[in-house]
Amino acid sequence: MIGAGELRSLARSVAGSAPPACDVEVFASQVTDTTVRIQDQEVQSLEFSESCGVGIRVVRDSRLGFASTVDLSRAGLGRAMRQAAQNARFAPSDHAHDLPQPRRAGSAVCRTGRAGPARPDELIRRGLELERLTLAAHPEIVQVAPARIGHEISQVAVVSSTGVDAAWERGQAYATASALAQRDGAAETGLGFGYGSGVEDLNLPLVAAEAAVRARRLLGGGQTLSGMFPIVLDPLATARFLKAFARAFSGRAASEGTTPFSGLAGERVAADCVTLVDDGRLAGELGSAQMDDEGVPRQRTVLIGSGRLLSFLHNTESAARTGAPGSTGNARRTDFRGLPGIGATNLFFDGKPGEPADIIGRVGHGVYALDVKGLHAGHNSVTSDFSVGISGHVIRHGEIAEPIRQTVISADLLTLLDSVQAIGSDRRFYPLDNAMGGATLLAGPVAVTGGQVTAERQARTRAAYEGAKNP
Amino acid sequence: MLDDEDIEMILCAALRTGPDWAEVFAETRCTVRITSVGRRLEPIIASTDRGVGIRVVRDGRYSYAYTNTLTRESMLSAAAAAASAAPARAPAAPAAAASAGTGEPGGAGGVATPATHRVRAAGYREPPMADQIALVRRAEDAAWQQGAAVRQVTVSHLGQYQETVVVSSLGPLARHHGNRTRMLAQAVAARDGIVQRGLASRGARLGTEFYADVTPESIGAEAACQALRLLDADRIAGGEMAVVLGAGSGGVLLHEACGHGLEADAIARGRSVFAATQGRHIGSGLFSAVDDATLPGAWGSAAWDDEGTSAERTVLFDQGRQVGLLTDRLSAGHGSLRLTGNGRRQSYAHAPQPRMTNTLILPGPDDPRAVLEDVPHGLYAVGLSGGEVDPVTGEFLFGVTEGYLIENGRLTRRVRGATLIGNGPETLGCIDAVCTDTEMRQGMCGKSGQWVATAFGSPTLRLRRITVGGAAG
Hints:
heterodimer, A: alpha+beta, 7-stranded mixed β-sheet, 6-stranded mixed β-sheet, 11 helices, 21 strands, B: alpha+beta, 8-stranded mixed β-sheet, 19% helix, globular
């Protein structure tokens, strides 16, 4: 494992060997991760990973080529450079592919989170504690499968012949617990998760309590409901919708005409109470950093302001392609193996919030969605139509009533945003593809279709569970 | 790729602390992705990735370490990390490796004299870049030609060559090399303010010779035609109804609604609704299904799984009776379950899990036309877009990419935005027709953060009754 400073030296050295008349950007990254899984107070698995590699963009006459390699020898890096240059020959000339210019001089390595790797024994101790806490949360919690704790350190350097010279290092710890609750033979699962800059920052009692509460809340479900109803989304459900529809705000999708917001800049696309913000500089949040993956400073971007579409998210390429003033600092790479795409950082609803209990209290007869299932399959990113499963409750006379299951809600994003009536003050960022800020949200009415949960099904679930516990 | 001496050295280091067994998996993967958006060629992505993963197992628990720095020092360091961290339920037995064995053919081969299996493969000859670009051009040209309402076309060609070697202290060394090729096309069509999307993808465990059977033109045209057809589609009114799944779609249902629940790790963790029904009749007598990694050239096929177990065909359901499970070494335990060759991983950076390969519902006796004519009111689902399942309860959800309303035995209106929601075991009992036709689909299946190539196949099926989500009915 090498340090971020050494990684930057490597990137500088590779960028310095650019072919004549070419601009070059070198993205070097190293990620180390340690994860432990605990079940039945025993370590099920312990995983260590260390991944290091370099991605090279070569631009000649506005023709872009790319190659990546994990072979960091002089010969291996030279091969990758030649391959990127060769690939550029096949590309069309396109000024949108010109590399970003630096907005400020290169600085020291930015560091956030815990610097050194977590010790395996510390992770194991915290994992055992998380499982104990989850099981102790309520007698109906009969299993945690599994409790997972991990710590990741990512180090990145971006150096280009156009003057970008940046490096950063970031430590991040995470914990999840999947609780299984059982009552009268019925079984349900619930997930709790948390994150922090170091393992010691993880609030394990909160993770355990969340898993237990979510698992228990759905026990006894079996009601069915069909028709048009107002819907209240739990913060997690709101966060899942934000994750699914973040692509609709991509400048690239806008340039391709593959988002429902294409051509609607400045238009009213949501209810007046909706202000949607992406802020990559929020202190201490999961999606925060000083720079994006092209070395462009992160910023706060208002996507929807009081119901009007104000901006898309951009990297350098999409900004050039759409005529936007510049990158919004949202360049995002999965790793060194690919070109920068576009990603949200901390995405959340801003504005005047309401109390969650008051929001639910405004609904006479409706649906409370505790979680959403199947969003990846049940939504169309081009049209924004969605038809997805929910687990949750009936809302009756302003109060949460019996659980519902096997229920689908259907609408489209524009209709949903247009029908938002209130957003709660209980904002919380969830680690869903960077950070999605969930909050209680009232919208609708939307189409709700409920299925039957039969007594036979409940019996089968019970038999399956008993069979697995006592093979 | 590592030579036998390197691998032996790493394995010895992994066995240093006397675990039950240890395994070394090394991989080199060359990938080329060519994408065109709106006739504009995107930058070509070319990557070479390689690395080694080491797993050390004790008492059914494991530690896993990987590195992509293939120096001896780095690989030995990863092996030492895995060896020293291997969790145990009880104090480890000393030097277990030499006596460990599964009883499988060729097992207990040991480290010192590993038997070497070589498999036949086409070998790696990367086609000229210009030829690969031409494949993408052919697909997008075909898509644009389908109609003036086509507004955007995106086509990607993915070519991949992979070499792997896996050896464990339990069995022989297995080497594998081969290609995967996949093309994805997306078309957007617009008319009178209505915008719709069509998707098509095809793939195989072959090189570009794959396109001799499945032309790029057919993939591009399929995406564009679907988008154009959906312009005329209405939202379906939700409710419970009969659903006819077009050929190929039922395979997606099998995969999500049943397949994941039959992966032995879910059963072992007490997290599968199928745990208590092994050997019982839970499905219609018309329903038989297999997982088959031996299909020549199929997207999910391989000669070996990623633990070095021979690929095979596993019967999951025989005329409605649940008879099979899919195992990897860990979930099979110490000989309590048979190894089925389903230990798969996304790459060297991941420990194997039991995963499906090519899952198929076997053809039945019914005529697709007659099956439709028998439905007074229902949905004909031409394609499913993938889905999600909760293995504990067996509840699943799928998106329907394209569908038609069935009224009095005839297809009437095109519908969009439908979702199927139900319960795996219950749905198997609802199958009341299985037809003679069969089609395959290809996709990437995600589980616990790992994505692997899986294929799904089925004939046309009819479900007597299932919940369809849609507009308010």
